[in-house]
Amino acid sequence: MKRLLAVSAALLLAAGTAAQPKVIAHRGYWQHPGSAQNSLASLAKADSIGCYGSEFDVWMTADKRLVVNHDRTYRGTDIRMDEARASLVTAIVLPNGERIPTLDAYLATAEKCPATRLILEIKSLSDPKREALCAKKIVRALKRRGLLERTDFIAFSFDACLAVRALLPEARIYYLNGDLAPQRIAEANLTGIDYWEGVLREHPEWIAEAHALGLEVNVWTVNDEQSMRHFISQGVDYITTDRPEQLQALLER
Ligand code: MG
Fold it and tell me: If you measure from the C-alpha of residue 191 to the centroid of ligand 1, how many angstroms do you get, rounded to a whole number?
């Protein structure tokens, strides 16, 4: 009985002191005035409000350059990130007046934001070979800037996750696609799952399963207060949101 009480007390203590989820700004803090999704300003603004991390999306263009943008085809144009030359892509003007940044320009801004982790999404390309080349180029760019240690990798492509793991045995790599149970992620030696909120509502058991396997759990894109509260109570490690200040305020209460 005494032992049971001690175990219960320890469990209660653990629950009471469980770390709160860390806040990740989705595509940077882009809803802030003067910002735009995946712009240099969005990273600087995520850093200025003390986000744990700032997420962004990286494509490899037809001429094998790295650029930062979300959609495959830029809205209102027929320019495809993975099929156009970089010069065409980086001529596109974002809603805040910046141009689509190269990865290197983005990393130069990251150097000036040393407190913010880089949550780098490798976008899916036409085949695993291209994805492996893209991963290699990204790792090289991060090394050149001394930013490898400060970067977490995320990808919908399982092949892209494995390509990063082959290059970097210690890197933090999270799978986005939501179709694999935590066991499979652990077997592939990845760091965790980073799943759409609908997936984690359908499989709430995956959160505890992941933790039992030593994996971490991130959830996207959680924008309303009720969902934020739900995932805070579920004990996820990270919440990715378009409303980082709202989430921060909720966590401080
Ligand atoms: Mg993304």
Answer: 17
Residue 189 alpha carbon to ligand 1 centre in Å? 22
Q: Is the pTM of this model over 0.90?
A: yes
pLDDT-above-90 percentage for the chain:
92
111: helix, coil or strand? helix
Say if residues 21 and 231 touch (Cβ distance below 8 Å): yes
Q: Which protein residues have a CB closer than 5 Å to ligand 1 (ion)? A: 57, 121
What is the residue range of 69's domain?
20-252
pLDDT tens for 129-185 read 999 999 999 999 999 999 999 999 999 999 999 999 999 999 999 999 999 999 999
Cα–ligand 1 centroid distance for 233 (angstroms): 24
Into how many domains does the chain fold?
1
